[in-house]
Amino acid sequence: MIRQSAPPPAGSPTSVQPTSSGAVAAFFVDAVLVVLFVVIGRRSHAEGVDLAGVWQTGWPFLAALVVGWLVSLAWRRPLALWPTGVVVWAVTVAGGLALRAASGQGIALAFVLVATVTLAVFLLGWRAIEGLRARRRLARETAAEAETNGASAER
Predict the structure, then answer these.
(1) If you count DSSP H runs as helices and E runs as strands, how many of each does the chain have, helices first?
(2) What whole-number distance in Å separates Cα of residue 152 and Cα of residue 131?
(3) 4 by DSSP, 3-state: which?
(4) Quick check: helix, strand or coil at residue 18?
(5) Which of 10, 51, 89, 122 is in the most buried spot, having the most CB atoms within 10 Å?
(6) What's the alpha-carbon Rg for the chain, to the nearest Å?
(7) What global pTM score does this model have?
(8) Is it true that the peptide bond before 83 is cis, omega within 30 degrees of 0?
(9) pLDDT tens-digit series, residues 50-95
(10) What are phi and psi of 18, to 5 degrees?
(11) Are 84 and 53 a contacting pair, CB within 8 Å?
């Protein structure tokens, strides 16, 4: 779970300003998920999962992830599915594939499709889960506050 500095406003659980450690943690989650994508891909093709191989396959996507964070200003709202998550995902996929092609690595259509879908599930999925958790937490806090205020009003 990524910490945010204040409870979110009603209807927008991910729109508050994160703590700086929350933004760092969100970037770390994105980076780990990109590396996981690379490791899964290399294993499924019986390629080595050694550091050099993972780096060779992963650096284009990790570099594009950094660009996606910069373009989207993701540190402002790192948990937001829209626009942060979508921009980070789109730039990571497009930039990663472009860098991969420029460095002489293959970009077969099947790989493009798998990369697009897998990175969408990873980079958008965890943000969607965090958004649901934040909404549930807000609902519990609102219900508890209403109960406390109702008990106070009865006195």
Answers:
(1) 4, 0
(2) 31
(3) strand
(4) strand
(5) 89
(6) 19
(7) 0.83
(8) yes
(9) 999 999 999 999 999 999 999 999 999 999 999 999 999 999 999 9
(10) -80, 160
(11) no
